Amino acid sequence: MARITRRRALTTLAVRPSLGSAAIVPVQAHPEQTKVNALFTEWLDAANAAELEPEEDEKWGESRYVRLQTAILAAEPESPRDVAIQFFVDCDRFGSDFSEHFKALVTRLIGPIN
C-alpha cells in the first residue's frame, strides 16, 4: 500500500461534505476542463520552468508566472476544485499566507452569515 503524503492527499482525495468529514472519496482522474484548471496547468509549467531556467530567463518566467497567477485568481470558480486551485495558487503552493482577495472570495461563496 502506498504511503499517503500531503501532496497525494491533496491531488487524489477529497472530503464529501454530504457524507461527513470522515468520508474520503477519490477525486476524478480527469477533472472537467474549466478556465481555472486550464490556467493552472500553464501556471504549474511556468513555476517549474522558472525553477529550471538560467538567470537571464528568470524575469520572463516570473512575469509569466505572475500573469497566470493573476488570471487564475480573477477567474470565476466553476467547481470546488477551482476554489482549491485558486487557494493553492494564491498562497504560492502553501508557501505564504492567503490574500485578502481569497478571503473575500471565500466569504462571497459562503454567503450571508447570521
Description:
The structure is a single chain. It is built from five helices and two strands, in the order αββαααα. It has 114 residues and is mainly alpha-helical. A two-stranded antiparallel ribbon has the order 1-2. Strand 1 (13-15) and strand 2 (24-26) form a beta hairpin. The longest helix is centred in the middle third of the chain and has 18 residues, at 35-52. The chain is globular. The termini are far apart.
The oligomerization state is: single chain
User: Roughly what fraction of the amino acids lie in strands?
Assistant: 5-15%
* Tally of separate helices: 5
Overall spatial form: globular
Order of helices and strands: HEEHHHH
Question: What is the makeup of the main sheet?
Answer: 2 strands, antiparallel
Q: From the helix content, strand content and strand pairing, which structural class follows?
A: mainly alpha
Low-confidence stretches: 7-26
Radius of gyration: 16 Å
Helix fraction by DSSP (H/I, runs of at least 4): 55-70%
Distance between the termini: 45 Å
Task: Count structural domains.
Answer: 1
In which order are the strands of the major sheet placed? Answer: 1-2
Task: Give the rounded overall mean pLDDT.
Answer: 74
Number of strands: 2
